[in-house]
Amino acid sequence: MSAPFRVDVFTIFPEYVEVPLSLSLVGRARSGGLLDLRVHDPRDWAADAHRSVDDAPFGGGPGMVMMPEPLFRAVEAVGPPRPLLLCSASGRRFDQAWARTLASGAGFSLLCGRYEGVDQRVADHLCDGEVSIGDYVLAGGEAAALVIVEAVARLVPGVMGNEASAADESFTAGLLEYPQYTRPAEFRGWAVPEVLRSGDHERISRWRRAAALARTMRRRPDLLGAGRPTAAERSLLAELASELPEPPPDPVPPDPVPGEPVPADRSAGDPSAGDPSAGESAPGESAPGVSAPGESAPGESAPGESAGPHPPG
Known about the structure:
The protein is of the alpha/beta class. Helices cover about 25% and strands about 15% of the residues. The chain has two domains: about 5-155, 3-Layer(aba) Sandwich (Alpha/beta knot); about 170-280, Trp Operon Repressor, Chain A, CATH 1.10.1270.20.
């Protein structure tokens, strides 16, 4: 049997992380030996009797800053799996693609900031990068750590049980997930689409593809790259438009004229061309590319939890 996927989290509030990650899917993965989650309190490596981990910032200013010594000592004593990512509002935005990258390795670690932030030398010389979960600030990095651990852990082989579940989810193929329904077939006059009750798996597959594409075009056109929707996708949308709970924008953008460049602002059919705010991704809502292609890769400087106390995000 292969070694379990290991995740180490450094936080001065161990219970904040331990309790939620002992429940549900992640909790079962831990008890089943698929996930080895270790939580470490940097206070255990503090140099004084008061277990101090923070001090006033050089140059003055409000708040306290986490000192480098307890953090360096903790990490060096534990020898956690790399990359070690600092949860920080200044980091690269976490997304599904990054989650897949982390899940493909043997493990990773997170360092949660608190107070006004973490001494910059920790980010520069101890961590491998900084990770953020969105453009907002939290009191500490723990909430971000919970998000990241769950997003990655569910992609570790064996954790979800049904591996196909992850394949159909939002962002996996650059699209939002198609609508889901369950019993009863009709509720308060709202019926489940007939195709989903037909038993025709080919029809169902085509309908789900069209529904996912239409939903993405309306809600997150930023996820569609150049050349999307393709000719085949437009044909599929035209064929099934009347059957979809969320029809595609009208009109679906035409094919570019051969030889002419595709306009940079082409919005994949965004129906709100006049609304500059429409189609923008919501803060904290991650998607493939959200901090994106072109930004530093895991293990380089970046990843932060837009969540801790202001750097910690």
